[in-house]
Amino acid sequence: MNERSDSTIVFRNVSKFYGEVLGINRINLDIPPGLTGLVGPNGSGKSTMMHLMTGLLKPSKGHISVLGIPPDKPEELFRMVGYCCQYDSFPPGSTGLSFLQNTLALHGLDRTAADEAAWKAIERVGLEEAARRKVAGYSKGMRQRIKLAQAICHDAQVLILDEPLNGLDPMARAEVIDFMRNLASEGRHVIVSSHILHEVDVISDQVILVHGGSVVAEGEIRAVRGEITRHPIQILIRCNQPQVIAARAFELDHVVEARILEEEGGLLIRTRDADAFFKALNEVVLENQIDIETVAPADENVDAVYGYLIGNPGGEG
Prior knowledge:
By secondary structure, the chain is α/β, with parallel strands linked by helices. The protein has helices spanning 46-54, 74-80, 96-106, 111-124, 140-152, 170-185, 197-203, 221-226, 242-249, 274-288, 302-309, and strands at residues 9-18, 21-31, 34-39, 61-66, 81-84, 158-162, 189-194, 206-211, 214-219, 233-239, 255-260, 266-271, 292-297. A six-stranded mixed β-sheet has the order 5-6-7-3-8-9, with helices on both faces. Helix 3 packs across helix 4 (111-124) and helix 9 crosses helix 10 (274-288). The chain is globular, with a radius of gyration of 23 Å.
């Protein structure tokens, strides 16, 4: 390994092949501490990248290091990394507590140390009352939290979380998001995969967009979105006077579409200059005392952004 870093996750010209099938292609990244969103549809290369970071796969070409540790040192790497898989898989009959105890035993902890570490992780995810209950009886949110506890119970400094918000109700999602933010605030690396761009926008310090095995953009989501300013941005507005806003929008050169939606109070704007549009929107709202319910990006989902980035305005079909 020619290049090492004790504070970042490093990809240097990394490719991974499955036989003749390309998983990822010549990826170069430096991922700093904090909460990083890894975004892409199925088959984009997200899972391959996560498995490379956890040491479950080795690169076909190039070099990886996780806080200075290469994948050819698995014992060191596994002590550093915690992985929360998207899919549930628990030993039959296991309780939340025994699930963590067995995990910690694999890390070489004796019974006393394993008990202490298991309870610390259980308390951190708020499952004390359910710790001795069988995991088979847990709700989706509880199962997600016990998997997060497994990822952190050995004090991992790098957390790889595969679709951790998938299937959770709003309250459970809020709890998991707070948990991830707290981990990141401690200086850990928290890598969160998702196929929903606005989801990771809300929680992440930075976003990595993956398409066809390559990184197509990285950075803060609005900085990523700024890379495609030549393409119209869609904005959804809900208010009590959509016709008034639409009339003003038609006067603006940068607005290419202003369409009143069938649902009451809905208006879709497509503009090549979002900043200028929002300035004009503020003016017309104040002038006409319009009650605004919602103003939100309508296309900050992964397919739309991919479509722009790879030259397919229709997005991924």
